[in-house]
Amino acid sequence: MCQKINKQRRKFIQQIGMLAGGASLLATQTNLQLMKSALAANYSGLSDYKSLVCVFLAGGNDSFNMFVPHESAAHQNYQEIRQEIALPRGGLNPVSGSSSNYAFHPSMGDSVRNLYNQQNLALISNVGTLIEPITREQYLAYLAGDRSIQIPQRLFSHNSQAEIWQTNRALNTGATPPGWGGRLSDLLDSANSSANLSPSLSLSGTSLWQSGNNTQPFGVGRSGVRNFDYLRNGGAHVNRAASWNRLLNLSLNNPLEQQVASSFTSVQNKISDLQGALLNAPDIQTVYPENNVLATSLKMIANLISVRESLGLKRQIFFVKISGWDTHDVQLGKHAALLSQVNDALSAFYQTTEELNVANSVTSFTISEFGRKSLSNGDGTDHGWGGHQLVMGGAVNGGQVVGSLPNITPAGPDDRGSDGRIIPTIAVDQYGATLAKWMGLTNGDINTLFPNLNKFNTRDLGFLS
Amino acid sequence: MKHFILLLFTLFSVLNVSYAAPNDVNGDNTVNIGDVVSTINMVLNPGTARPVADCTLPAGVDIVDVVCLINIVLSGVSHADAARFLTQSTFGPTVSDINQLITIGSYEAWLSQQFSTPASSNQLAATEVLWLKSCPKKSGVLYASRPTSSDLDLDLSAETYRINAWWETAITGDDQLRQRVAFALSEIFVVSGASLFGRSFGLADYYDMLATNAFGNYRTLLEEVSRHPMMGLYLNMLQSKKSSRPDENYARELLQLFSIGLVELNLDGSPKLSNGEPIPSYDQDVIKGFAKVFTGWNFANADSWYFRRRSGDTTRPMLPWEVHHDNTNTKQLLNGTVLPAGQTAWQDFRQALDNVFNHPNVGPFISKQLIQRLVTSNPSPAYVRRVAQVFNNNGVGTRGDLKSVIKAILLDQEARTGHLTIPHYGKLREPMLRLSHLRRAFNVIPATREASCGRGPYMLYHKMRVGSSNGERPFGQEILRSPSVFNFFLPDYDPPGPVKNASLVAPEFQIVAANTIVDLANEISFEIHRSDRAGSDTTLQLDREKALANNPDRLLDHLDSLLLSGNMSAAMRTILLEHLANNTFPAGDAGLAAKVKDMLTLIALSPEYLIQK
After folding, report:
1. CB 3.0-4.6 Å disulfide test: which of A255, A270, A388, B556 passes with A63?
2. What is the average per-residue pLDDT within A124-146?
3. Domain residue limits, chain A
4. pLDDT value at position A39?
């Protein structure tokens, strides 16, 4: 009796809700379809294969210890600034070429430095979140109340800066915007013949960078993909999967329930194709380091790249995040281990792209929410702003430092204050725009991804060809 | 009262009751009309209940509906209502807890009972017990005497015992509300074993500290969190010393995550705006001020400042060392407050926490997150305001009284009836809560592994995988093991798709990716699949459900009430009934078990179940 009473009441409420909630959802979907069809013509003619691999060093990489002055007077100056966390000159790995007075961290000799010297890796100097170019004087004026210039909100906060890096939203109101990788992927998906598979694959679960308007990252485990085994293998007696799909296809009024249903359905639609394709992936001969999460992730990415043709994909983006970079304490040991992991992983991955004959078609790049203060806090460092990033691939104009290396002296010309939080000289927008252009995006579309790009002198940093 | 008697009289006449010997009234699995009438009699005439006979219901009247109706009349709490309340306030309703709540007859009374239930289990002690059972060794030699917590921490497999101790408490503890709130607090005041290697006993003690303070005052909680050596280690306040550039980590995350957040808030949790933009709630000078405040703290057992961290006592609050506390500088705090130079570490610490505690953001910031953890991802601003008001003043002038805040959250009209009126109501069940719900609802039997020396980790509960900070965990979640201080998910995460399109948030979706969806679905399925089997594995008990399996309507009524708080839609029920009707199941006991397992699996993986409403 009371069951029935509740049911009827609920049904009535649901019906009311349907009327209120249904319209906006429909409108959004229509817009998305219109957008997709309007742009489809732009990229459907792309015939080559290209992909981006984003390596997120989560926590804030102390890149001023990843790439340091090697010339002896400059190194001494560096040592005086960084004090407890300064790296001794002896173990550094100096690079060749025009920046030969600089050197990579001791953990980055045999691979990253060599990739650099072989011109397959570039260092992009002092990249960070910006709305427009800003000098120390302008920053200090901003602090004093001058609002003629804009700076990103919530500097030095991990999640806020990570969000800006990935979405390019520097002023924060309302819902989280899509990631610029996701929007890139939305636009370029017309080059892909597979209507079903996502061009965005993530080795680290939900990824804001890949979250687009109509393409979303598809999570893949480091050991590959599995299926809904129990539901599918129900034995002779039942078809569980059929009943489950009926439950997923019910008309649901609650957006959270809709979200559950659409996630399940989307996974089901894609997983079998992906699983099937991976079964035919060639064995990778390159030897990968053990106990290296980044390397294992990149190896799976290489596997996914190797089956691109059977998946019908010409443009893909990949994402992997490794944590632990927030080195407030015991930095020397922690940072060395992390950089060593990156070093070994990048090396194996680059070698694999050569093995798969895609070295010129795959560009890997790092992001990190901020650099760190040049002043140490005793045995670690606190949150900074600008920092260096690495870009690797056969298409990279490697063996160079892109942009100018900052003066990390506290209260110096590049400091935003007195403790060595360095003002970026390259905006995330420029960094991303250069990558997007290489992927084939038109200037017009690049502007929609990076609306602040026109505030900076250089649209294309020139590190890719 | 007249109506009440009249209703009962009508009911009795409809049922055509006659009186004889009483039948099983103590809430076993058989419900018959004799029990119902006896119950009524006992309520009406305590101590003089008359004997009652079994009797026949008129055609078309279902006994379950009768029981349901009577319970509503007697206590105002239906099975579904009780299940809903317990879903929000415990690790999952059980049949006996539902019956108990109905018998108590009011949520307030149940809350009072829970508020006075002492912490039933001490995670630190439970971890030690499990650890000792596994025959701890140091350098291959058994301890001659009871080891200290820092000895214990050296055992890396201790993390397994800590996690098992947590599951044991979550599933069997009588202090369900306290433990459930502690779990919510552990997702706000985050420390993580994913980066605090070999600190399991310290982590267990940290969790106990959260549970102890769950019904206390937020100000005390803030102090105990700040002084706990695990927090000291996690966010680097421990051994941060006087310097021109002290470590800013704790200062920053205390403000951003544990108290006031990044921007100024209205009482209803919405951001205050200035020219359309949010207003930052602090600047870098404030961070520096707090960083100076938090200098000079070390392990309680440190006998020198650079005391070896491995030997630090991870269960006693940190103590100040004045010589390493910054007492020469003034310290900029919130709202223009500046602490004078020359104060002791204690004075600075307490005054700084008072300064945080009294910031107007704390009420809405903490209240909204607790609502999200217990009740719904998208509370109305008015709901947040009502709870924040209680945070600010519990009615007798006390600020930060968490007991009153919890009560306000759970008794609020939106918590109790929001599912009837708000289309986007509810929250995605977290992986751990999905599992705890099933394990409690079906009276899980932990593994019966013999606790003998040399057998390795003493695993009570299956598949509690512990990975590194980057390790892949099928549940995407494990107690006190989030990947960073930002928890497993952020309170404002808005997954692309229907949720974002509706301008809503759904934090728990941040750990929902294609691979984790599949892995978790498989894990949950296997948990159900291997149930009802004797053996050494974690086992759900399904006898009660198997007894109902040949009566699909009864089975679904039962599961609807227990798992979906009575919210199963008619369409979903039809699909489940057709699944039972249209598939061929084996004969006998195996067939009953198969039917029940299929129902549990389909429900556990259904959108209607996965959104707790």
Report:
1. A388
2. 95
3. 52-455
4. 46
Contact check, Cβ <8 Å, A254/B601: no
Phi, psi of B88 (to 5 degrees): -80, -25
CA distance B119 to B205: 13
Q: A303: which 2 tokens?
A: 């596997």
Test B607 with A261 for CB contact under 8 angstroms.
yes
pLDDT (tens digit, 9 = 90+) per residue, B474-506?
567 889 988 889 999 999 999 999 999 999 999
Task: Tell the residue number behind the tokens 């989280």, with chain if given.
Answer: A176
- The reply to whether residue B601 touches residue A229, judged by beta carbons under 8 angstroms, is no
| Nearest Cβ partner for A237 among B468, B499, B585 | B585
**C-beta atoms of B495 and A206 within 8 A:** yes
| CATH domain A52-455 topology | Alkaline Phosphatase, subunit A (3.40.720)
DSSP states of B373-399 as a string? Answer: HHT-SS--HHHHHHHHHHHH--SSS-S
Q: Cα–Cα–Cα angle for A69, A75, A79, nearest 5°? A: 115
Handedness of CA A36, A41, A42, A44 (dihedral sign): positive
Handedness of CA A32, A34, A37, A40 (dihedral sign): negative
Strand partners, A202: A219, A319
CA dist., res. A111 & res. B31, Å (int): 72
Both tokens of residue B346?
């204690």
Name the token pair of B49: 């209940």
The Cα B369–Cα B364 span in angstroms is 8
The predicted pLDDT at position A38 comes to 47
Helix (H, G, I), strand (E, B) or coil at A372: strand
Task: Determine contact: A290 vs chain B, CB below 8 A.
Answer: no
Kindly provide the ipTM of the predicted complex, given to two decimals.
0.87
* C-alpha distance across the termini of chain A, in Å: 73
Instruction: Give the end-to-end CA distance of chain B in Å, rounded to a whole number.
Output: 32
Are A334 and A324 in contact, with CB atoms under 8 Å apart? yes
Close Cβ partners of B372 (under 8 Å, ≥ 6 residues apart): B379, B427, B491, B507
| Most A-contacting residue of B15, B249, B264, B470 (CB-CB within 10 A), to test interface | B470
- B28's CB contacts (< 8 A; 6+ apart) are none
Instruction: Report A:11-40 residues touching B (Cβ under 8 A).
Output: 11, 13-14, 17, 20-21, 24-25, 28
- Cβ within 8 Å of A, B 57-76: 61-62, 64-66, 68-69, 72
Q: Find out whether B311 and B354 touch, Cβ atoms under 8 Å.
A: no
What residues pair up with A391 in beta bridges, in sequence order?
Answer: A122, A365
For residue B393, give both structure tokens.
């003043």
Supply the pLDDT for residue B155: 60
**Residue B332 or residue B463, greater confidence:** B332
Question: Which residues touch A309 (CB under 8 Å, ≥6 apart)?
Answer: none
Q: Where are the domains of chain B?
A: 2-115, 427-612
Long-range contacts for B550-557 (Cβ within 8 Å, ≥24 apart)?
B550/B592, B552/B576, B552/B577, B552/B580, B552/B581, B553/B577, B554/B64, B555/B595, B555/B596, B555/B599, B556/B599, B557/A3, B557/B64
CA A417 to each of CA A309, B49, B131, B171, B288: distance values in angstroms, whole numbers, following the listed order: 52, 81, 51, 52, 13
pLDDT tens digit string along A371-413?
999 999 989 999 999 999 999 999 999 999 999 999 999 999 9
Nearest residue on chain A to B611, judged by CA atoms? Answer: A257
DSSP A323: -
Q: In b/e form, how buried is each residue of B329-338, taking b as 16+ CB within 10 angstroms?
A: bebbbbeebe
Mutate to test the interface with B, among A143, A160, A173, A260 (most CBs of B within 10 A): A260
